[in-house]
Amino acid sequence: MQKPADNQASFQMQRALIQAQRHLSEDLNPQELPGRILEQLAFVIPYERGALMLQDGPILRITAQRGFPVDERIDNLVMPARPGDIYEEMSKTVSPELIDDVTTDARWMQVDWLPLNRSWLGVPLFAKNRVVGMVSLTRVEAGAFSQADVLMATAFAMQAAVALENATLYQEITLFNQRLEQTVLERTEALRRALDTLERMDRNKSDFINVAAHELRTPLTVMKGYIGMMKMDAAVKASPSLAQTLTGIEKGTDRLHDVVNNMLDLARIDNQVLDFKPEHVSVVSLVRRVQLDYSHYLADRKLTLQVDGLDSLPPVYGDPALLLKVFQSVVINAIKYTPDGGIIKIYGRPIQDAQAGSCVEVCIQDNGIGIDEVQLELIFEKLYTTNQVALHSSGKATFKGGGPGLGLTIARGIIQAHRGRVWAESPGHDETIFPGSTFHILLPI
Ligand code: ADP
User: Fold this and answer.
1) Is residue 74 part of a domain?
2) Residue that wins the pLDDT comparison between 244 and 384
3) Closest by CA position to 125, among listed 162, 167, 83
4) pLDDT digit string (tens) for 135-150?
5) Which is more confident, 230 or 397?
6) Rounded to the nearest whole angstrom, what is the distance from the C-alpha of residue 318 to the centroid of ligand 1?
7) Ligand 1 centroid to 310 CA: how many Å?
8) What are phi and psi of 13, to 5 degrees?
């Protein structure tokens, strides 16, 4: 049976152990932790010299020490971990080793410049299913460590090993986070540079379009003036073939004028200087106007344009000339990308949109070649066209006639200036089954 005094001592030791363990679990700095372990251990088991050693290949290195003489040789003090050595034995058994008097133990290798301490207690540090090092304690007197000390040191070393492992993990995570943050910073910087380049390229494109449009407009105006004068000329009036040739030239010039005007519109949208005169506009009147203007294209291409349910729509608030351009672009595309004999339907409804509020949604649906899913957004990009440049035809409404790729960009720019939205939907592109496309235009009322 234990005596009351023994009980008291055991209780105090256990309290010291719990306190020491609490301190260790708070410390997450792997550089300072080994020193803290030895410091806390001194409260639990008195010792004269202590070292915490971690295995580094075939040797044990001192990571922290207490009570050693001040000597720079301590930095190079290592203990071999070879077969037959004390540590090697301890690694196998994973149990503490107590030597009551080192002078009588053949395995002991006394470091000549260290004062002789006769008692030695070694406790393995067990982590990740293996012994990773040990705590080595010595006392001057022989037989100074008791069995209770051995038990206490073992319990303490188990906690110390867990604390060391946690601290290492924490450091690894911290390092990983730092590296991740650095990578994110680098990637963000690379993206910013790429964005700068893209923005510069986009500005170059806009500048080119702007300059080219202005350069082309002057000679075009001169040409149109001369064409007008020639039409008045008696010789032209008298010659049907000359008049026909002149009409051909005039048509070509008008088409060129359209393209140049589109380029100027785009430059205005890019520079946010769109001339915008809003009023209440009836959608159905805009659509009827487009239907009338394009009636000869529809007839030539044997296309049917059905307008449905637009009469009851409330008026939208916008610039009628700009909105007319939007409907012209989308309808001329529906004409261009629908084969002869196809049907184009235009219908609408009032809706409540989360972003744009009370709106009118107008849909322009065709049964043409359709659009690939990947192109649905790209077609609104400046100068983007899915056709090969070589296949472009000069006819404004020819099937798959192609164009400069400005129509939808301008349409989106105008719609956005009205705080509306425009987008395309299509089951895909197919020139055998003609899945068709639907363009949705959302305009606030
Ligand atoms: P453009 O018609 O001058 O090429 P747009 O900006 O008007 O330029 O259109 C861009 C591209 O979108 C077109 O080249 C075409 O490939 C595609 N597209 C537009 N409308 C349709 C449609 N209704 N059906 C199929 N493709 C279309």
Assistant:
1) yes
2) 244
3) 162
4) 999 999 999 999 999 9
5) 230
6) 24
7) 24
8) -60, -45
Supply the pLDDT for residue 180: 95
Q: In this structure, are residues 54 and 61 in contact, taking their beta carbons and an 8 Å threshold?
A: yes
Give 379 Cα–ligand 1 centroid separation in angstroms: 6
The b-or-e profile of 130-139 (16+ CB within 10 A means b, else e) is ebbbbbbbbb
Does residue 226 register a pLDDT over 70? yes
User: Is the pLDDT higher at 272 or at 161?
Assistant: 161
User: Rounded mean pLDDT of 403-428?
Assistant: 93
Q: Helix H segments across 311-431? A: 320-336, 375-378, 407-417
Q: In what order do the strands lie in the sheet with 437-444?
A: 304-308, 343-353, 357-366, 437-444, 421-425
**Which residue, chain included where needed, has tokens 């990773």?**
132
pTM of the model: 0.61
Q: 433: domain range?
A: 274-444
3-state secondary structure of 418: coil
Q: In this structure, what token pair is assigned to residue 7?
A: 């009980």
Nearest CA to ligand 1 atom 17: 379
| Position 197 in a domain | no
Show the 3-state SS of 275-289. CCCCEEECHHHHHHH
Structure tokens at 293: 């203007």
Q: How many domains does the chain have?
A: 2
DSSP 220: H
The preferred substitution site among 259, 385, 414 for testing ligand 1, maximizing ligand atoms within 8 Å of CB, is 385
Cα 209 to Cα 413: distance, rounded to the nearest angstrom: 16
Do residues 152 and 281 both lie within one domain? no
Measured in Å, residue 15 CA sits from the centre of ligand 1 at 81
Q: In sequence order, what are the residues at sequence separation of 6 or more whose Cβ sits closer than 8 angstroms to the Cβ of residue 407?
A: 262, 329, 330, 332, 333
Atom 25 (ligand 1) nearest CA? 370
Question: For residue 72, is it within any domain?
Answer: yes
Task: Say whether both 165 and 292 belong to one domain.
Answer: no
